[in-house]
Amino acid sequence: MPVCCAVYGYECTRQASLGDFELLPRTTSYAQARDWARDKSSYHLTALLVGSNLTGRLSFELEAILSFIEHLDVIITDPQMLDGSDLFALCPQTIPTHGRHDGGGATLMSDTFSIDSRPEFIRSCLRHLHDDKFCTDTQFRTLLFKKVETFRQRRPFLEVSYFLLYSGLESHARAVTGDRANRNSSEPICKLLVLREFDVSIERPAELARAISTYTHLRNALFHNSEHEIEINVNGRLSTLKIVDYYFNFLQLLTLVVMKAIAFDDGHINWNSWIDRQPFK
User: Fold this and answer.
1) Which of 146, 108, 89 is nearest to 16 (CA)?
2) CA pair distance 118, 66, nearest whole angstrom
C-alpha cells in the first residue's frame, strides 16, 4: 500500500524519480497540464507523489520547491495511505481558492521540452535543504523560503515582498562572504553576486539596474521612511528611484541567485534574464 501526497498546481507531464519516491503526472498533455497549473482561480490536481519515505517535512519542502519552479503557489497534501487501482480518483480534482498570485512566470522549462530540468532541480534543492551545515553556512533555507513567500502571501504587498527579497539576499550574502559586520549591506551583496559571476557594481550611474546601491537605497527608503521611492544624486543630478521600476529586476535576480546557490544549470537558463527579461536561451 503506497504512501501518497496529492499535488495541486504544479505542471508536469512525465513521471520522475525523485529519490525514494516518484512523481506521477495526471496527464501527459502539455496543453492540459499547463492550463491546470497556471489557473489562478483554482488549484487543480496535477500529480501524485508516491513512495515509502514521504514525510510531512518532505511535503512541506517540496511545496516550496515546486512553488519556486512555477512562481505560483503549489499545494501538496500531507502523506496518507491510499489503496486503489486509480489513486487519482481518490483525491479531490480541484481545491477552490480566493486567487493565486503570479510571481512572474515559471522559472524552468516544461518537462515536455526539457525532460530533466525540473526533476534535477528538485533533487538538487532537496539535497541542499537536507544538508544542515550547508544551510547554516549559506542561509540557503532563508533565501529560498523568503523568495517563495513573496508570491504566496494571501494579498501580496509590494513593500513586504521587496523586503523579503532584500533580507533573504542579504542573509545569504553575509553568510557566504563572512561579511557580517559591515553596516553597508551593498558590499557583501555585491561580493556575493560578483562571486556568482553576475555583472554588477556597488555604484553604476550609467546602468542603475546593475548597481547594488539602487536596491539598497530602495530598501532604506522602505525601512526608514515607508516610502516606495527615493531621490539620489547621480553624477550631480537628482534621479528618482522607484521600487515598481526595479522590482522585476530584483525578483528575477533572486531567482537566479537561488539556482546559483545550489550550482544548478540545465543549459537553458539565461543568467542575464534579470536585465533583458528573456528567461531561457
Assistant:
1) 108
2) 9
Cell 536585465 belongs to 275
Kindly report whether the global pTM for this prediction surpasses the value 0.85. Answer: yes
Which stretches of the chain are assigned E, i.e. beta strand? 3-8, 16-17, 21-25, 42-51, 75-76, 80-81, 94-96, 229-234, 237-242
CA 144, CA 171: separation in Å to the nearest integer? 11
Torsion of CA 23, 25, 29, 31, to 10 degrees: -80
Nearest residue to 273 (alpha-carbon basis) of 245, 243, 251, 258: 251
Question: Could you give the CA distance from residue 75 to residue 195 in angstroms, rounded to a whole number?
Answer: 35
Question: What is the pLDDT at residue 1?
Answer: 63
Low-confidence ranges of the chain (pLDDT < 70): 1
Cell numbers of 182, please?
Answer: 559591515
Position 147: which residue type?
Answer: K
**Sequence-ordered alpha helix ranges (H) in 178-211:** 186-195
